[in-house]
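User: tokens in, sequence out, please.
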């Protein structure tokens, strides 16, 4: 298994997906699924943590989320789509990781600190809320994913996942005779390859040559004659420590990290300023038409400044270059009116969403198909998850005969 080719990501099912999530994250998933081995997790446990009222809707929301993903182009033949709670292995890994994750690492997470201060009475003071990022780390590490496409808000959680993986490998990847076993494994590579491995390792350890590190890792991935255990040893030996049982995942940020909402703030569900993937053409039009514009344009003849207008921000991520230029120049010269400008944006968004909405309709009419896609996804995810857990249990001394 090559962790650098494996992707995991997830979302909490808490309502319909909006354009910001589509442009910021989902579009990159759709691209990645053709190049990577992708696992996409509907994080229903995460939706419940700290928000017990979600229990009323979480099951419907999970199904709707799957429909939004499928509509956006996530394909069950390329990627594994599954519901977190249908893969109970996530819970076991979370528990095992909780044994080695220092509580202060969680207590100082920004979301925990902020939310905890704001909402004392609700679920924000729960044990689960504190552990939210650790459950997310388990989601990722369970599949030994090297790459996690997320929005910028998730970077602290990714950092935690890396720290936990590193600590796990440090504590449980160690063997009394690690060095001797690693040296023995090198010999098994064959004369030419061992010499290359040794020189790359030396270049990395003595000169910090990252290129050499990556070359050595690629070299290891190609070796089909050594066991997985030896591969993990040699991987860990490159950097000194022990075996790498849980590789450290790196974040992959979307190209459009921040999408402006209808009111000029950040597009978010809670703020009520979002355009949803399944909004009807009429809803899209109503929302855009009511958007505020540059306040300087009181009358049609007043020139405006696009950078002060949320309509312009949406043009930049939805309209093609010609339309953007037309809007920018027309605004500054008062050559176009705001209604015209908004009309062009309505067209661009409708065009972008039309094929998605068509696909969504097919799935809406066939919920059993969606359920079977998720059921199959859970099976495939579990197969992979069980393998990791077997390694983790063994490393932690939990092997019973
Ligand atoms: N916490 C993420 C969010 O709020 C959702 C999530 C759960 C996730 N598990 C994950 C993201 C694993 C990436 C990988 O968006
Ligand atoms: Fe905004 Fe367009 Fe009006 Fe300019 S013309 S203020 S960019 S809506």
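Assistant: Sequence out:
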């Amino acid at each position: 298994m090559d962790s650098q080719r494996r992707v995991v990501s997830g979302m909490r099912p808490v309502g319909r997906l909006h354009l910001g999530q589509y442009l910021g994250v989902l579009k990159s998933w759709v691209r990645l699924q053709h190049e990577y081995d992708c696992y996409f997790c509907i994080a229903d446990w995460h939706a419940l943590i700290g928000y017990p009222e979600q229990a009323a809707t979480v099951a419907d929301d999970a199904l709707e989320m799957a429909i939004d993903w499928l509509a956006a182009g996530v394909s069950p033949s390329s990627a594994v789509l599954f519901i977190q709670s249908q893969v109970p292995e996530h819970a076991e890994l979370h528990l095992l990781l909780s044994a080695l994750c220092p509580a202060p690492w969680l207590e100082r997470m920004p979301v925990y600190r902020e939310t905890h201060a704001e909402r004392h009475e609700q679920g924000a003071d729960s044990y689960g809320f504190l552990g939210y990022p650790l459950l997310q780390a388990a989601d990722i590490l369970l599949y030994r994913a090297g790459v996690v496409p997320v929005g910028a808000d998730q970077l602290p959680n990714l950092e935690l996942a890396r720290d936990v993986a590193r600590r796990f490998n440090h504590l449980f990847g160690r063997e009394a005779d690690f060095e001797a076993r690693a040296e023995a494994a090198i010999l098994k590579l064959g004369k030419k390859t061992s010499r290359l491995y040794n020189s790359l390792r030396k270049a990395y350890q003595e000169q910090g040559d990252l290129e050499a590190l990556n070359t050595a890792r690629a070299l290891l991935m190609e070796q089909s004659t050594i066991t997985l255990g030896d591969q993990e040893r040699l991987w860990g030996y490159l950097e000194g420590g022990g075996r790498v049982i849980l590789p450290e995942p790196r974040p992959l940020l979307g190209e459009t990290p921040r999408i402006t909402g209808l009111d000029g703030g950040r597009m978010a569900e809670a703020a009520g300023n979002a355009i949803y993937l399944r909004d009807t053409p009429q809803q899209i039009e109503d929302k855009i038409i009511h958007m505020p514009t540059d306040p300087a344009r009181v009358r049609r003849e007043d020139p405006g400044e696009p950078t002060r207008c949320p309509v312009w921000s949406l043009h930049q991520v939805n309209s093609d270059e010609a339309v953007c230029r037309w809007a920018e120049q027309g605004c500054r010269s008062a050559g176009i009116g705001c209604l015209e400008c908004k009309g062009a944006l309505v067209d661009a968004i409708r065009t972008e969403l039309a094929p998605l909405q068509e696909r969504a309709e097919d799935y809406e009419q066939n919920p059993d198909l969606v359920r079977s896609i998720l059921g199959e996804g859970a099976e495939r995810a579990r197969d992979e998850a069980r393998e990791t857990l077997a390694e983790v249990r063994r490393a932690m001394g939990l092997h019973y005969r």
